[in-house]
Amino acid sequence: xxxxxxxxxxxxxxxxxxxxxxxxxxxxxxxxxxxxxxxxxxxxxxxxxxxxxxxxxxxxxxxxxxxxxxxxxxxxxxxxxxxxxxxxxxxxxxxxxxxxxxxxxxxxxxxxxxxxxxxxxxxxxxxxxxxxxxxxxxxxxxxxxxxxxxxxxxxxxxxxxxxxxxxxxxxxxxxxxxxxxxxxxxxxxxxxxxxxxxxxxxxxxxxxxxxxxxxxxxxxxxxxxxxxxxxxxxxxxxxxxxxxxxxxxxxxxxxxxxxxxxxxxxxxxxxxxxxxxxxxxxxxxxxxxxxxxxxxxxxxxxxxxxxxxxxxxxxxxxxxxxxxxxxxxxxxxxxxxxxxxxxxxxxxxxxxxxxxxxxxxxxxxxxxxxxxxxxxxxxxxxxxxxxxxxxxxxxxxxxxxxxxxxxxxxxxxxxxxxxxxxxxxxxxxxxxxxxxxxxxxxxxxxxxxxxxxxxxxxxxxxxxxxxxxxxxxxxxxxxxxxxxxxxxxxxxxxxxxxxxxxxxxxxxxxxxxxxxxxxxxxxxxxxxxxxxxxxxxxxx
Amino acid sequence: xxxxxxxxxxxxxxxxxxxxxxxxxxxxxxxxxxxxxxxxxxxxxxxxxxxxxxxxxxxxxxxxxxxxxxxxxxxxxxxxxxxxxxxxxxxxxxxxxxxxxxxxxxxxxxxxxxxxxxxxxxxxxxxxxxxxxxxxxxxxxxxxxxxxxxxxxxxxxxxxxxxxxxxxxxxxxxxxxxxxxxxxxxxxxxxxxxxxxxxxxxxxxxxxxxxxxxxxxxxxxxxxxxxxxxxxxxxxxxxxxxxxxxxxxxxxxxxxxxxxxxxxxxxxxxxxxxxxxxxxxxxxxxxxxxxxxxxxxxxxxxxxxxxxxxxxxxxxxxxxxxxxxxxxxxxxxxxxxxxxxxxxxxxxxxxxxxxxxxxxxxxxxxxxxxxxxxxxxxxxxxxxxxxxxxxxxxxxxxxxxxxxxxxxxxxxxxxxxxxxxxxxxxxxxxxxxxxxxxx
Lengths: 540, 439
What we know:
Helix content of chain B: 40-55%
Number of helices of chain A: 16
Oligomer: heterodimer
Number of domains of chain A: 4
Mean pLDDT of chain B: 83
Strand content of chain A: 5-15%
Mean pLDDT of chain A: 86
Low-confidence stretches of chain B: 22-58
Largest interface: A-B, 82 and 89 residues
Low-confidence stretches of chain A: 1-5
Distance between the termini of chain B: 65 Å
CATH architecture of the largest domain in chain B: 3-Layer(aba) Sandwich
């Protein structure tokens, strides 16, 4: 019997049309990628497209056809970001090192040197042309009206001797430059701007007797000390400073990799993204900034994640069991109500909670005010007191998280056959006993993996901490800024993104990898535990 | 099997056709995009001017892309008509949230997707220049048209990196229904507060309760002459000299500690402070000119009180100098046409009309001398300008990134009475030094 996928029916032609479309798009993308010289992406594209064509054209790969879309999604959304993060964690990608080496060289080579104490003479600039399409620049001294017409050159080219071809004056009260000089005609502003798309005016220089003059915008010029301070020698891989006469080879120490470092020790910026190996990982383990508060943050992180899961699961399960009872009325209404926290975007409700828990002006303390008065105690600092802040974080996470557990438990409860409980009742197990001995273990078989997932999620619950307390209140006297409710991810976020001299993406990625490894360990351990559960109860 | 080969041939034919179609349609869409941009961005009339009889390739010039926030964008867009008429280059202004411009420029610029010109705060200059994201901008003869302080703020390692347009600094708002005349010294302020009825707070400052705020505490750092970093007018701020636990700074923090202990300064975060003042429940409020709008708009604050603003009080004859912020235009290092971008800034934006229009769009104090003269009569603007004149510009070095967290956190602990002034400043100093060394 013929495989239906390989018949010449409509399905085949639809498949072919789809492939043709995909290949056409791929071919077009490939051209764009070649133009941009993104060879890595080009290779990925070619391999991916060839694979897809192979899978959908050859008859033997029929089974692969079903899983291929999933494979592609997994590659694009999971594998590639992980590989990218690993790569970033092995580089010095941070503030000051975000460019490619070519871009950094280009940036340094475009530097003009102006002596800050003796800024050079300023001129007004006009551009003249002749019939042959050549052009000359007219520099007029604003004060005296003296002008010089000269031939410009590219900054990187050699000096033109006697570049000035004509001189004169329009007098101190001048308003307009001469219309024509020796057959050269003044360009209108419009023509000048049009010309500026063909000629890189920012790189032009005129050699005046006073020195090199560079162009500012399209209407002024200034005599400078050097029109190009740095010159890169590709053979030697050294950047030369023509003004201060020094050589600047690329640095080779941990601190200077990815920057040119001059003989006198000055590190030039911008630098470029350089491969630094395991240095970021070494920083994580040796840096006092990280090691100091690590234990405190790690312990709270574990406590926070475990309690979050335990509390949300308990409440969710309790509500689910309550609503599951056959004599319960208005089940639909309650279910809708319980889902509400799940339906509101968390970032919104977290901010609302933050306002409600405001120690001075929040609704919570306003409501509790009579009780405080009665007991004669100070109002509770829900977000400002170290202990209460933790309670608040857990409470808000409970509010945010229980609907999820409620939904899961409801679903799992409905999947447990009633006969089991009926049989148990016959044997005399009812109520609490039946729940703990029969229902709960069966639920755990289905839900334990999800609880581990929830643990992993809460372990990295950056949104909640960042928006609710921002890690605060701060720990008094700590050697680095750390808060009482900081978890690893919020703590490392602060270190990697706002400490020191700006962002440090390399270090941040190294942290991410380590947190990922920690989570992997914890999850692997937990899954082994749940497998045992399954072995015991899975057969039921 | 033969049939399969014919099918493959058909597939390849289909590629070729589709690619051809794709190429064409891609070109089509880009041209139509350019067309719509032109009509939407250039106030339409310009095409009717027949001045451009000289035949040039002007129509083919790519537009100049500017990033600005929603307040500044319309003003810059109005320059577009004149710019295009004079030059044949159209102007495209994209609205980008002010707070995200810096990061967007840093990530998109090197990839070739950034703007040619963008606006920003002066304290970005260190990070932008270190990253190679901005180009130096020699203002030439235009430089004399701006205030010295604002130009200095946009300098980095001896080069000018932007053209300023606005300055801003914190001043002291007060409620004239409660306080008759603005106090000149901090002693007068506390004396005035002693006469307040109960239930009215004295001085509200953001940065207490649950959110640290180093920016709103700078006036306490400087009240006895302290500074965050070493400073010289030649080389600017020195990130290797952190001065947070200096005698002067601790004295300033002690002043705050006493004000807190005596109940003059309640523990308020930004929102708390604002609520208290706009509800008429606080006499004084330290914050910046950006709140003028909300105080003037009864729709936002129906109960908005009478308000007035004064320069910061003095302490022992010393001004409580706030951070001075400067906003300016930057030219991207990845501008498609650097000369054109500079020409736009120097010849079309640095004019009294545009600078005054920028001021009117968001009155924060101008950096342009002609505009400053023009708005002299406005008492609110004059007060904020006077307040800015007492302070130095906020440090523009990347090390400033290490200040916000530790200084904000430790002032927060001080405001909540958990540490004393000396230990708060010592801890902040250590944390900042550790962060700079480790980062």
